[in-house]
Amino acid sequence: MKPLVYFTILLLIIPVQASLLAPLSLGGIKPDLALVLIYIIGLLTGSTEAALAGMAIGLVQDIGSASFIGFSGLTRGLIGFSAGLLGRRVLDLTSRSNSIFLAAFSLMEGIFI
Question: What is the mean pLDDT of each run of 10 residues along the chain (113 residues)?
Fold first, then answer.
């Protein structure tokens, strides 16, 4: 992807997630736009680019939430890397199993945190 696209994503990810997706919580569970975005980047581009995008988005989220800096960047980078490997070797982009893998990545990140 182009650097301008990534820069725009980094600037807009926190405000969009906080303003548009916060009211959509079900039972205290909120959708995570950043995780979905990293997963899609991994499927479309590859493991290296998705890992770097995941680390950058995770670091921006850490700074925005005033949490331990670098931890979310590490987990999001690993998710991007894994999604990139799955996209190249296992998954078809039009497959319905993508939602299952996305839910599994979200669950693993929640358990790890």
Answer: 84 85 76 88 90 91 82 91 86 79 85 80
Buried b (16+ CB within 10 A) or exposed e, 32-44: bbbbebbbbbbbe
Asked if residue 38 lies in contact with residue 30, where contact means CB atoms within 8 angstroms, the answer is: no
Residue 105 CB neighbours (<10 A): 24
What span, in angstroms and rounded, lies between the C-alpha atoms of 104 and 100?
A: 6
Residue 68 and residue 104: Cα distance in Å, rounded? 23
pTM exceeds cut of 0.85: no
Residue 26 DSSP one-character state: B
**Which phi and psi angles does 29 have, rounded to 5°?**
-100, 120
Measured distance CA(72)–CA(109) in Å, rounded? 9
